[in-house]
Amino acid sequence: MSSKTPNLYALLGLLRSASSEEIRRAYLKSAKKLHPDRNQAPGETELFLGVQQAYQILADPQRKAAYDATLPNEEIEPVFESPLECKIELSRTNIYNGKEKQLVYALATVSVAPEYAKNAKSPPLNVCLALDCSTSMQGPKMDMAKASAIQLIRRLAPEDIFSLVRFSDRAEVVIPATRQLDVRRGEIQVNTLATGGGTEILQGLRTAIAEVQRYNSPNYVNHVILLTDGRTYGDEQQCYEDARDAARDGIGISGMGLGSGWNDIFLDHLANVSGGSSIFIQQPSDIERLLNDKFTYLSKAFAQSVDLHAELMPGVKVEYAFRIQPEAGVLSFGEEIHFGPVLYDEPLKVLLELSIESNRNDQDRLELMKGQLEFSVASILNPVPIFPFGIEVAVTNDVMTAPPPPAIFQALSRLTLYRMQEKARLAVEAGDYDRATRHLQQLATHLLSQGEKGLAKTIMLEAQHIEQQKAFSETGEKQIKYGTRSLLMPGERRL
């Protein structure tokens, strides 16, 4: 093969050992990024045609075999310099042969490689703000939401794309997806917003996703921010399906719940399946600060749509997945786990709880998970390689009880507090109010020992409320949930 002929695997960011499914996914991601309808940069049309040719050859087993035979030995596995680094720490590096179920915690830390971090710059944004304009939003809520939207418009960079959707029981595009939005015109359009009608989030979500899709590109941070104070009824499952589809297209969704009447379970899951986050806004006066913080967070994204595609070995299950930082939250898991973005100035940390059924074999080592991290980087036009992601442990005949590494111990200590409130919530749902109050009392005791007096007081008051009313209060439940969640994040982003 001529030295001037590009390696077809390199064009797709793949190793020669890539499976047919990995080849397909790499092609779809590269084609979307480089398509002439979305990318007019010089030379990118030629690269797009090269990616098409690479896929046509590598997707055909016979043509792939013939091409592989032309590769010199030194090109069998092209060498890639990944823009990301991934470190995996385990709570235990070995398991024992036995019939008992065993747990292994894996802390994955994904960060920008130093040579890329020093030259990182803020990527352009393609963001749609979907704003609940139902009747319940009238008054100070809507006034602050409009003022906050205007502040976002004023801080847009020239390359940013912004859109605004209002929704109640129907949805309307107020500001179409626009690059270099005229600030004065945008302010006028925001000020036309009025409240009325009920809340149907599906209408607003679909319309917002469609606006982001108009200019969807891996060269941008593509995101929907949904701000609501109410609940949607009957369309939750369709919202989840739309969010999953959006995630596959590289679009994240974050929910911001205002006040106490919104459904936190729904917004959490909507965010979880798309790699976004959910935020609790207690007072209308907090809207501007938290919305601005979200924009700042998105503008620091280096790698986006960071997804784990992994195969679990027989007898191994993911019991729990939690993103510790930069934005804490439970993650949904299935064939893939959407980790969310990696910021250029802060690592992404995800804790996985893996269970292993009875392990009786003669192997010295046991593979628990194998797969890869897939992502895109706005500042890198060429396809980036997938990142191998594997977890394995040694197998011994003796029970070993070495303490976990400090990073895992700290993460588990904080996460335990969050899961205490989860257990209290489940106990209330099951009608076991005594167990719920015990969980909350234990949680408050732990928080007091750590100096978290305000949150501990809120929890004790909520325990009393459950004893008397046999239910959480809407406000107290959210304060506890998001308060314990924020303990996992860096201090400056805690509630």
Account of the 3D structure:
By secondary structure, the chain is α/β, with parallel strands linked by helices. Helix 2 packs antiparallel against helix 3, helix 8 (201-214) packs parallel to helix 9 and helix 12 (406-429) packs antiparallel against helix 13 (433-449). The longest helix has 24 residues, at 406-429. The strands form three sheets. The protein has a six-stranded mixed β-sheet, sandwiched between helices. 38% of the residues lie in helices and 26% in strands. Strand 11 and strand 12 (329-330) form a beta hairpin. Mean pLDDT is 88; it is low at 39-43. The radius of gyration is 24 Å and the shape is flat. The chain starts with 7 loop residues before the first helix and ends in a 9-residue tail after the last helix. It folds into four domains: 8-75, Helix Hairpins (Orthogonal Bundle), CATH 1.10.287; 84-119 and 302-396, Sandwich (Immunoglobulin-like); 125-299, Rossmann fold; 406-493, no CATH class.
The structural domain count equals 4
Label the CATH architecture of the largest domain: 3-Layer(aba) Sandwich
| SS-based class | alpha/beta
Number of separate strands: 16
Determine the fraction of residues in helical runs and give it as a percent range. 25-40%
CATH topology of the largest domain: Rossmann fold
Mean pLDDT, to the nearest integer, reads: 88
The largest sheet is: 6 strands, mixed
Query: What's the CATH first level of the largest domain?
Result: Alpha Beta
Choose one word for the global shape.
Answer: flat
Uncertain segments of ≥5 residues (pLDDT<50)?
A: 39-43
Radius of gyration: 24 Å
Strand content: 25-35%
**Count of DSSP-assigned helices:** 15
Strand order of the largest sheet: 6-5-4-7-8-9
Distance between the termini: 59 Å
